[in-house]
């Protein structure tokens, strides 16, 4: 059975699966908090790998690239519930509560945070919406989202510098970023936004640094990594092509042979 995702009410998203499921690469444009109801989520991101186990609550920062694999529990079910904290909602909340950001949130902080029991109990209170035993009015939905913001700030007051920072991302080191994130199969527009550039500025800077186009560099970089893994780590093409940003195995085989003159099995 395929994984399903359902929007229970505005900004409350429920995901369910009954077998191991590999999610697509995702560009996360908004902050969100999530609760692992059942099973595990294995997340790969620029800072490494994170396992979100059952009954854990987490906060994910916006403007991130994430790839996930979802594992059902021993009982055979995967369930994850998330609340999207979009910029419009946060801006309105900051205005009403006269919140002023004092400093940028430290960039070296973890992508995932594990808040306290108050937030866990908050998510438990949302279970009736999953079971369809309760229906949320727009007003109630708005109150539940504001409650989540309040609980986050109660757990860590410094989160205000993260949640209410509405500035555009700073222009960051493009070369370092691309070498850390080349394996994510997302549009070039996402790479541009994450490095704090317009699409035209991104392409211009990219060509200056790498002396080639983003599309060509990404293809070559992924293939070079594949060659190394297959030849020196004895990996199988079928097991690594998705992790390296290729959409399908046949395209990977074709590109590999075109670049290196041999098939992956002949390396």
TrEMBL record:
InterPro entries: ExsA-like_N, Homeodomain-like_sf, HTH_AraC. Pfam families: ExsA_N, HTH_18. SUPFAM superfamilies: Homeodomain-like. Keywords: DNA-binding, Transcription, Transcription regulation. Transmembrane segments: none annotated. It comes from the Bacteria. Residues 172-267 form the HTH araC/xylS-type domain. The keyword Hydrolase does not apply. This is AraC family transcriptional regulator. It comes from Chitinophaga defluvii.
């Amino acid at each position: 059975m395929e994984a399903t995702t359902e929007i229970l009410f505005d900004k409350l998203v429920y995901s369910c699966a009954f077998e191991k499921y590999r999610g697509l690469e995702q560009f996360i444009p908004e902050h969100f908090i999530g609760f692992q109801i059942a099973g595990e989520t294995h997340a790969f991101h620029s800072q490494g790998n994170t396992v979100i186990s059952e009954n854990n609550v987490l906060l994910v920062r916006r403007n991130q690239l994430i790839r996930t694999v979802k594992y059902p529990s021993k009982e055979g079910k995967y369930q994850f519930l998330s609340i999207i904290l979009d910029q419009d909602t946060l801006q309105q909340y900051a205005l009403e509560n006269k919140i002023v950001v004092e400093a940028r949130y430290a960039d070296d902080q973890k992508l995932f945070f594990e808040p306290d029991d108050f937030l866990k109990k908050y998510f438990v209170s949302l279970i009736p919406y999953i079971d369809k035993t309760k229906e949320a009015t727009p007003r109630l939905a708005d109150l539940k989202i504001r409650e989540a913001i309040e609980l986050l700030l109660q757990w860590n007051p410094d989160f205000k510098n993260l949640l209410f920072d509405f500035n555009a991302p700073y222009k960051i080191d493009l070369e370092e970023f691309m070498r850390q994130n080349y394996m994510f199969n997302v549009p070039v527009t996402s790479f541009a936004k994450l490095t704090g550039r317009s699409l035209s500025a991104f392409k211009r800077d990219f060509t200056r640094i790498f002396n080639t186009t983003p599309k060509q560099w990404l293809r070559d970089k992924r293939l070079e990594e594949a060659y190394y893994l297959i030849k020196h780590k004895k990996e199988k093409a079928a097991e690594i092509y998705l992790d390296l940003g290729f959409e399908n195995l046949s395209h990977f085989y074709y590109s590999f042979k075109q670049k290196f003159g041999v098939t992956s099995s002949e390396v």
